[in-house]
UniProtKB/TrEMBL annotation, chains A, B:
Pfam families assigned: GntR (PF00392), UTRA (PF07702)
Transmembrane stretches, start-end: none
Gene3D superfamilies: Chorismate lyase-like, Winged helix-like DNA-binding domain superfamily/Winged helix DNA-binding domain
Keywords: DNA-binding, Transcription, Transcription regulation
SUPFAM superfamilies: Chorismate lyase-like, Winged helix' DNA-binding domain
GO molecular-function term, one example from the UniProt record: DNA-binding transcription factor activity
Protein name: UTRA domain-containing protein
Residue ranges of domain HTH gntR-type in the record: 2-70
Keyword Electron transport (UniProt): no
Keyword Transcription regulation: yes
Length: 229, 229
């Protein structure tokens, strides 16, 4: 077979999954595979690299390439804008600004972002709806030095989420999903009973030179995070 | 600068993040970048491909490469064995087989796996502990035709999770995280109050030729899913 690197990857994966190459076994080297498949060694390298990144193979510089004994599989999680996520579910997305407040953030927020306790921050609370139903409540603190101009953003017209992606994109950060139960005030906003289970996403993001924002997104009951592997 | 593709990727990413190449703008073509960086065109191609896979760039065959206007960021989620996940937290992992039962699975289970309602399945319930504290309750249904030999696996010695990874590895599947509240029986096993918030992972996995297993993993309160972006 000749083909692109994806064809080589698929054939190698087939051999792993059918156990022609069982877990822990050494596979032929790149030159041998290039010869067998009738492709360039670089093509084989690209295919094996992709399978190593997905956890199927373990590559060691001198010891060659082995099939992972207990492959650690990985899923990819796309991080859409909140609006995009609602629209991807086939709903009309709407945001309502519940309030903004400048001032110091809770210690847990500044600590997560590595900021001083008196860093200049703005708190923003937003209610997101999918069609007419509550989708999530977004509690956010924005670090002004990491997002210059945020204090004059027209947050009634553009959501803080969208303003920040356009004007202060993050370079890295942390996501954390946890289960909580709805406090009465949150339950009222989400239109659910107090004590109902709520999937909460906490996200801390950092720009190339400064922390940008801390967000807590409390989803209405029934929301789930789905991933393909 | 000369270097490997990772060096080129990092430099291109720096130019995107510092807005030297702003969102939506077209970047120089591969030949131009190869000339500037003093590397092979294939090296530039590998770097741009990686950035496109991470959502920073949009590549079109004739239109060239642009910086994504609103980059859709992606995170990678490693899928460890339950035992590995507990041990990675610095705890001793222990599993206790609560029971097994052959027989038909609930309709939601067979439907999720695309099986007939009378498919030959085995139900297994396992309690996982981290040190002495309950970590999660694992409710699993295994499709015997996708995992031959499972009915004679010594599940008191090896967990169903580990047996399946070794003997019936999956090729693809679906993960779903949701918040629930603990029913009394689950609360008793997890050592929490009924109604406490529980992060539940549902996972359906498929082998190269048949569905393998449906799992519901109900984590003790306080557990969260953390990801880097």
């Amino acid at each position: 077979m000749a083909g692109g690197w994806q064809d080589i990857r698929d054939e190698v994966l087939r051999r792993i999954q059918t156990r022609r190459w069982p877990p822990g076994s050494q596979i032929p080297n790149e030159a041998e595979l290039a010869g067998e498949f009738g492709v360039a060694r670089a093509t084989v390298n690209r295919a094996l690299q992709a399978l190593a990144e997905d956890g199927w193979l373990e590559r060691r510089r001198r010891a060659g390439t082995r099939v992972a004994a207990a492959p650690q599989r990985r899923a990819r999680l796309a991080i859409p804008l909140i609006r995009q996520e609602i629209e991807a579910g086939g709903h009309a997305a709407a945001h309502r600004l519940l309030g903004t407040a400048p001032g110091p953030a809770p210690a847990a927020v500044t600590a997560a972002l590595g900021l001083a306790a008196d860093a200049e921050m703005i708190q923003v609370r937003t209610l997101w709806r999918a069609d007419e139903r509550p989708f999530a409540v977004e509690d956010r603190w924005v670090n002004l030095s990491g997002a210059p101009g945020f204090d004059s953003a027209p947050l009634d017209r553009i959501s803080a989420n969208e303003w920040l992606v356009r004007h202060a994109p993050f370079s890295h950060g942390t996501l954390e999903y946890a289960a909580e139960t709805a406090e009465p005030e949150l339950a009222d906003l989400l239109g659910c009973a107090p004590g109902a289970p709520v999937l909460v996403l906490e996200r801390h993001t950092f720009g190339p030179s400064a922390p940008v924002t801390f967000m807590r997104l409390s989803h209405a009951p029934g929301h789930s995070l789905k991933l393909e592997i």
